[in-house]
Amino acid sequence: MDDDQLNKKICEESNESNDENANVVYECCACHEAKFELTFEGLWSRHTHPKDYPDDNWQTRFSDVIGASHTIDYRFWEPDQVSSEGMNTIAQSGITSTLESELKSKSDKIRTIIKARGISYPNVTGKTFAVFRVDQEHHLISVISFMHPSPDWFVGISGLELCLPNCNWITNKTINLYPWDAGIDSGVTYNSTDMPQVPRMTIKRVLVANANDAHSPFYDPTGALMKPIAKLHLMRQRLYEKSCIEEESKTESSICETSAWSDWDECSATCGKGFSNRYRQYKNPEDNHKPYCSKRSMIQRKGCYVLPSCLIENEETDMIDPKCDVTDFGQWSDCSAECGPGVSARFRTILNEDVSPKHCLSRMNLQQTVKCETKTCPDDHDNTDLDVICSNCSLTHWSFWSPCNTKCGFGQRERHRFNLNRTAMVEECDIRCYTQTINCTDNPPCENNMQMEDILLFGNNFMLKKYNVTVQRSLINNVNEKQMLCNKTDTNKTTTASSSENTSITPVTINPDDVSEDSTEKCLLSNWSKFSACNAICGLGSKERTRTILSPTDPMEQKKCRKKLVDRRNCRGRQCGKCNYSQWSEWSLCSALCGMNAVQQRTRVPENPSWTWCKDRIEHRICSALACKSD
């Protein structure tokens, strides 16, 4: 009575982690299969768990990570259940082959066996990786990794749900991992001698609250929250499109049977972006109240776009710098896709040519882009919204639309974006995720008949902007001859003029197709050639284009044309694949019999010799050679 042991306060167990499994979706309605990357990150160190941390820290390690994506009715480990023989083998020796055999014996329940190499000293706080796939039936995962040295402690998850109730897959998830006791050994410290538990106990979570033995490295008399031993990162990499209709036909039964999907209703918007729905119903209305059936989706929604686009609110004119006055927007371009979802854009320009575009771009938009769809494609895959196709790709934002690639007639604009994940394979993302092309709507028609009036009144700069040509000054004698020259303007490509003394001037041919837009009176340049192919098979490289000096032809005079004749730009080949190498060769003999400069080397080669981007092929080390004798 006096030592206060007749009262005991019982509190609800606190959740020390954010790794509680989401509610299991008993019937996953996700049609597509998904590919995930699993990253196991060790956190166990002398800094995070200093109490009785092993003195022989060179022995600290996590065993190989092993697990599976599986059905809802299967677990290879669970809390309050007795651990299997495979887990016993890992606890004693760190070997995962027995557990792997147990998983293979349940192949009807498993989609992918997950395996990742264990991490050990000095990289116990490093990372290891694995990939796996899930589908409509195999939508849960379970993984484990044992701690060494320890009696039988491990970290892991059991039956983690990756399918969402909205018929999609999670995009990413991070889980804190805490120690579990496998119930195989009754030791309480990292280096306890073997004390087999007979009979085996059930798997229990190691909590501060139940680590009553003061020798336990997790014992804390203050009851402070335990720090995680490791973390698990899950990242969705890719979706594999599957037909829902086919999947439903396989599992359809009289229980929870539904009608066929209705047609898509009209777009919710009268202009611009909206959405459209379609519906189905239970054939037996009573199924609506059954828990198993309530997981089925009775409504589906997709995005839609109605042209013309909604009017965009006008900018506040009093907030715009007068220097940045702009033209009205031009016409909308044709849809970038002949069928299915695409984009359309329109443009305007700054009237004041002396103002830097950067000064004005922070105040207004010179480009507007909207989604569009002219008609439905025969192939349903081509009707999928680009945002859905590219949802599993890590991409930059779209660039601005490029200038039109021609100055008159038909031309095109492009915009681009790039994959932020340099290690991803190029086939992971559809090519449409990287580039979009539209036609130019504001180009004037290409006319070969240049107006002499323009030349006389406005001179070369105006001609360069209006017609994209440079005019030789010898064509223009003086402004007083304006009227006479206008009357004698030829309707052909050749334009001639006569001086007041009836002295004929050599005809000058103006060909807009052959002259560069930045030519000058003293330096006439050809158009740029097409860019060469990228010199990199994959990753970053360069490409170039060239042009020549058309006039003057004298090499000495050409040196006065201070114009760039080679244009070199960065480019990117296809995404570089992950480098897989052969085993390292044996170390070579020392390069010298004595001295500090004696080294050895060993080599390895990529699995595919054509993978020139795989550079990590040779390794050096200093030999343990004796010092050379001095003379």
From TrEMBL:
Entry protein name: Spondin-1 isoform X5
PANTHER family found in the cross-reference section: SPONDIN, SPONDIN-1
Superkingdom of origin: Eukaryota
Gene3D superfamilies membership: F-spondin domain, Thrombospondin type-1 (TSP1) repeat
Alphabetized Pfam families for the sequence: Spond_N, TSP_1
UniProt keyword annotations, A-Z: Cell adhesion, Extracellular matrix, Secreted
Subcellular localization, as worded in the UniProt entry: Secreted, Extracellular space, Extracellular matrix
One GO process term, biological-process aspect: cell adhesion
